[in-house]
Amino acid sequence: MVCGVMSAPRKPFWLLPNLLSLDAPLVAVVWLWMFAKTWGVNYHPGHGYVVLALGVWVLYVADRLLDATLHGDSPRCRARHQFHRRHWRKFVAGAVLALIVVLVTVLMKSPMAIFSYLVAEGVLVAGFFAFATITPAAAGDIPYAKNILAGIAFAFGAALMAHVYLYDRGIWDLLKSREFHGFAVLCILNISAIDLWEHAERSRDPEVQATDELSLTLPLTLLGAASLFFALRAEQHSSRPFFYAILTGAALLHVLNRTRARFSMESLRVLADLALVAPALVFLSFPSSG
After folding, report:
1. What are the extents of the domains in the chain?
2. Residues 127-172: pLDDT tens digits?
3. Regions of the chain with pLDDT less than 70
């Protein structure tokens, strides 16, 4: 059984990026730019941003179509899933075209070193879709394993498109990077926030709602404290704006977590994406990062 495809009222324009799966590519390219600036990448061609944006878009379209197909009337099926289901032919055609562009660009324009990174990314993506396929759609479940894989895969994909152009380093250097670790945790918490907010919305039990809020508040506080610590202790000044950006993202998610009752779930999804884009303004405020 698939998500319902009944006609729905016209959605507000501000929801279109989420319905079209354009929100995640925007977040990815913003943080790719910050990775490149932080790591001092001297040569960073524009097609790297195109490959990342199209690749992320294809994966998000695939994930939403898969959710719409597998999980039926589950609470997971929101407006974005219904929209993808109604227009699945257009999304599939667009995803195939985008995938061709990505493959051709990677083969013709990217350095050979990128293939070792892509193997690791492929393992993460495959693990994510495996969990997405086998994870039950019970309303009471928070798919933490899936969210962890999704956050790591997203962060690794954004980081690798900058790191691959540091020709004197390799994939293990990226995996040991504090910047990568910090952004990966921020992505995991961003994805988990949506599930926790939806779970709290469905529950009438105040204890469950309080537990869901604490499940996000505590790790966000720890991430913020760690980001501040690494920013202040950074040996290279270029790393400080990046950790302040992570701190900003964690703080904004914390504010949303505390004020979520004021917003609809669709609004919270858009605001959660903005919470990962807005830190770029903090990053830009440092002269050395511009």
Report:
1. 19-289
2. 999 887 876 655 457 788 889 999 999 999 999 999 999 987 889 9
3. 1-11, 71-78, 135-140, 235-236, 288-290
pTM above 0.85, yes or no: yes
Select from 149, 154, 119 the least CA-distant residue to 131: 149
- Give yes or no for a contact between 241 and 286, defined as CB atoms under 8 angstroms apart: yes
Instruction: Return the C-alpha torsion angle 210, 201, 206, 218, nearest 10.
Output: 0
